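Internal ticket #5521
Category: modeling
Description: The requester needs a full-assembly model to guide mutagenesis choices. All entity lines are attached below as received. Residue total reported by intake: 574.
Assigned to: D.W.
Attached entities:
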Amino acid sequence: MPGDRPPFEDLYRDYLGRIYAYVRAQVPTSADAEDITAQVFMNAYQAYGRFEARNTSPVAWLFRIARNATTDHFRAHGRRERLRRTIEHQPVAEDDPARMAEERLQYRALLEHVARLPERQRDSIALRHSGLSFEEVGVLMSCSEDAAKMLYHRGLKALRDSVHKEES
Amino acid sequence: MSEDEDLDLLALQRQLDDAFQTTRPRPAFEDELWLRLQSRRPFWQRFRAGLAALVGGIREAPAVPSAAVAILLIVVVGAGIFALSGLHPGGGTSSVATGTSQDGGRSFQPNAMPGFGRLPAPVSAPKGSSTGTPPPYTQYDASGTNVYLGPAKLTWAGHLEVTATNLPVFRYKDPTPAEAGHFAASVGAAPSGQVAPGGLGMYSGQNFTLVVTGSAAQPAREPSYNLSDLKSLGASSGGDPVAVATAYLAAHSLVPTWPYQTEVQTNGNTVRVRFLRSFDLQAQGLAGLVDSAGERYGIEVDTAAGVSGAFETGPLPLSLDSVNYSIVNSNQAVQSALASSATSAGAAPLPVVRLTNAVLVYTLVYAGDHSFYEPAFLFSGTFTDRGTTFIKRVLVPAVVPSLLLP
C-alpha cells in the first residue's frame, strides 16, 4: 500500500545517521561503516517499491537490511580477522585527521567495547540504542520481546564489566 | 542488584544513547550517497522530477538531504565525460550518427618508461551482497538488458585478436572550483546558489541552470556538468530526437568534439539521446568508453514531447596527458578473464557463461585528485535462467600486470 509508506527521501533523512551508527558500532573503521551503510540504502532504495507497510514498519525493515548487510560484510571480510583485531585491540589506520577527531569525539572507545561483545548481545544493544523498541528488536532477532530484553541486559552488564576492566 | 549497580548501568545506558546519537557519518557522505541513489533512478523519473523542480523554482526543492536534493532534482547523474583536448564553447562540429571529429590530432608518443608510474587497476562493478534485499546480482543497463553481476563459471569460445603492443593511458587532474567557474562563464553562466558538498559550483544563465561536480570514486565518475535548459528550441528541433538533442547542445556550444555514436531511448513521451564516447586509437581504430559494469556512456540529453527544455549531462573541458603502456596479448587477456571464473558459491548453483565476444575499451579509473582512462578488454556472453536471458560482462585490464598496482 504505497499510500502508507513515507517517501523514501524521508526514510533516508531520518534514518541514515541511525543506520550508520548501528553499523559503525560493529565494524572497525568508518570506511567500512560507510560502505555498508551505502549498501543498505542502495538495497532499500531498489526494494522500496515492493515494501508493504502493513507487514512491518519502515524502520524495522531498514534495520533488517542493515543487519543482513553487516552480516554479509563479516562473511566477506573474514570474521577471524575482525576478531583478531578486536582481541589485539589494534586501532585501524585512518589517516584523515578530521575523521580521527570525529572518532575521538564520538564515543569510539565505548563503541569498541560494544563491538567486542558476543554477537547477539552486541546486536541487541546496537538495535536498542538505535531507537528500536524491545518488541522491534525481538522481531529482528527472531526472538520474543522478553528474550530481547534479557539479551540486552546481559549485554549491558558485559559491557560495563568490559569497560571497568579496561579502566582498572 | 544494588543501587550503585543500577546507577552504573543507567549511566552506561545514557553514555550509549549519546554514543549512538552522536556517531554520524562525515557530513559529505549523506549527499554523496544520495547522489548515488539518484543515479539509479530510471531517467524518465529523474526527468520528471527535475522538470517539476524547475517549474517550481529550484530553491523550493526539498532540503533533504540538504544540497544534494536541490542539485539532483535537476541533474541526471552518471554520464558526464570529457573532451580530450577541450570541449570548447563554439568549437565543436560533428556528424550526428557517428562523430568523426577528433581531439585536436593528439599524437601518442611512445614512452618506454611509463610516465605515470604503476597504475591503479580498473575496478569491476560491485558484486553486491549475498543476502541483501533484493537479490543484488542483477541490474538493468541503460538499454534495458538484464546484466548479471554475480559470480559465474566462465568459458571462452570467441576470438580476440590483439595487434597492438602498447596503448595510451590518459590522465586528468580534477578541476578546481575556479576552473569550474571558468567553464560556467564560458557558457554564459554566473555563480548562483550554494555549492553542495562534492560539487564544484552551481550557476545560472539565461533560461538555464548549471551544476558542476568533481570526480567520484564509487562508482567512478568524471567531473561533469549538468545543465537544465528551460528554453524550447521550437522549429530548430525538428522531429528527429538526435537532431533535437544536438541542437540543445549546440545552443550552449557543447556538442562533443570527440568521436561518438548516438543511441536513442524512449519511454512514454520522454526521450534520452546518448552520445557514447569513443577514443580514437588511430591504427587501432575506435575504442568505446565503458563504466565499471561494462556499459558504454557519454553525454546525455533528455527531452519530453510537448515540454519545453532539456536536461544535458556532459563533460568538463579538461586537458589530458597521455603515455603509452605495454599491454597484454590476446592469450593473456583471455586467461585474465577466465581467472575471474568462480568455483563454488555454497548451495546455489552458479550460472555457466560462455564468453563469446571481446573488445578493446577504455574505462575510468579513479585515483583521487587525478584519474586515468585506461585500456581494458571487455568480454561478454549470455546465459538463460528460468526463461530470462542475462548478459555477463567481464572487464580485465589491458595494461600488463607488472605496470599495475597490486
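Resolution: model delivered.
Comment from assignee: The two ends of chain A are 55 Å apart (CA to CA).
Ticket closed.
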